[in-house]
Structures are given as C-alpha cells and as structure tokens.
Specification:
heterodimer, A: 114 residues, 7-stranded mixed beta sheet, 4-stranded antiparallel beta sheet, 55% strand, B: 114 residues, mainly beta, globular
Chain lengths: 114, 114
C-alpha cells in the first residue's frame, strides 16, 4: 500500500532555530504539495511542485520559509529562523498529475516552536 | 476558484446513510467537485470527485445536480469510523501545468453516533 511519508512526525524547537521537514511522495507521483494546518486558519496551501519545478509558492512566507525538491523522491520544507507562530501541523501530499489532481496526504509533521 | 458552502456540523446514526450537502453556485465548466475527509489527527483522505455525472466508488457516492451548483456526498451505511471533517472543494482541470491545487474551507464535521 503506497503512502506518502513525512519525517519527523513531531518536532519541538526553540524560537530562532532552523527546522527542516521532509516528505517522500508516492513513487511515480509527479506533483507534491505542502500544506499547513492550524486551529485558527485551517488547512492552507503553502507551495506545490510539478515534475520537481515549483509552480506556486504564494502561500508561503518568503522571508523565512523555503521549499525544494532535490530529487523526485524527496521534498523539503525549511523554516529559518522559526517563530512561535509557525507552530502547526505541516502536511505533504502527492499526486499523479494529469487533468484531475487527486492528492494523497502524508501523516503530517507536528511542529511546536517555543 | 469557485467557493463552496457546507453546514458546519451534522449528526448521523450508525448504520444509516449520511448525506452531506455542498453548494458551489459559482462553479465554472472546467471545475471538478472533490470530496476529502480528515479524521482527527490524521492527514486528509481523498474520497471521490466528479465533473457533472454522478459517481460511486467503494467509499461513497457523489450526486451532482444538473446545473452543477450543488452536490451531495452520500456515505451509504455510516460507521463510527466515518466520524470526521468532510471537505467539499471545487478545483479546475489541470491545463498546461497550471491548476491542481486544493483550497480547503472549514468543512462539515460529521459525528456518527451509536
């Protein structure tokens, strides 16, 4: 049963530290999405890639967040420096592409910035 | 992207059909209707999608009105494990590498009761 995997599953860090979250999309999927979920804002799209190229990162705070796909099996989301307001659950999702983009979500990374 | 309107919460008795409505009166011709759900503490899960015809899979049925301005997700025999937040999302067909992103609203919190 193919699944999206995310690491770490939980992260507690102090304000100002760098945080790196990793996502392994389902093998053969060519689209990767990053979402953030908080109680106040719900699920927000941060950025997404197709065939490893960034298509839209308008939802991402540019000054501290960066998203990359070093290769087809790894997507990363970095926060530097982290702030308490970044505390949230970060989800990665992948899709096959095509005209109808069905997305398959990972279990999420729960981030707490103290 | 077209906006959707869903009731914030619904209850359903275990074993009965759960009918979750969604209004998308501004939907355009190239936009699909997607349904996802999120069980507590998990990533969202794809359920079903459709363009204008009714659709059925092993999880649910999707009924789209002829004018496409509203739809209903039907879980034919709800179980306690179907308790979740259900999201109705309208998203355009992917064309020339554009599109495919999902904009999540607040969804409907479905409680299935014994």
């Amino acid at each position: 049963d193919a699944r999206v995997t995310q690491t770490p599953r939980h992260k507690v860090t102090e304000m100002g530290q760098e945080v790196t979250m990793r996502c392994q999309p389902i093998l053969g999927h060519n689209t990767v999405f990053w979402y953030r979920q908080t109680m106040m804002q719900g699920l927000e799209l941060l950025a997404y890639f197709r065939n490893r190229a960034p298509l839209d990162d308008s939802g991402m705070p540019k000054d501290r967040f960066s998203a990359e796909m070093p290769d087809a099996t790894l997507a990363t989301l970095k926060i530097q420096p982290s702030e308490p307001r970044d505390s949230a659950v970060y989800f990665c999702a992948s899709g096959l592409g095509g005209t109808q983009e069905t997305q398959y979500f990972g279990p999420g990374t729960r981030l707490l910035v103290l | 992207d077209a906006k959707t309107t869903q009731p914030p919460s619904m209850d359903c008795a275990e074993g009965r059909a759960a009918n979750l409505p969604c209004n998308h009166s501004t939907i355009s011709g190239n936009e699909y209707v997607y349904w996802y759900r999120q069980i507590h503490s998990q990533g969202p899960q794809y359920i079903i999608h459709g363009l204008k015809n009714n659709e059925t899979n092993e999880m649910a049925s999707l009924i789209i009105t002829e004018d496409r301005k509203s739809s209903t997700l039907i879980l034919p025999h709800a179980t306690l494990r179907d308790t979740a937040v259900y999201y109705c999302i309208v998203s355009p067909r992917v064309i020339y590498n554009q599109g495919g992103k999902l904009i999540f609203g607040q969804g409907t919190e479905l409680s299935v009761k014994p």
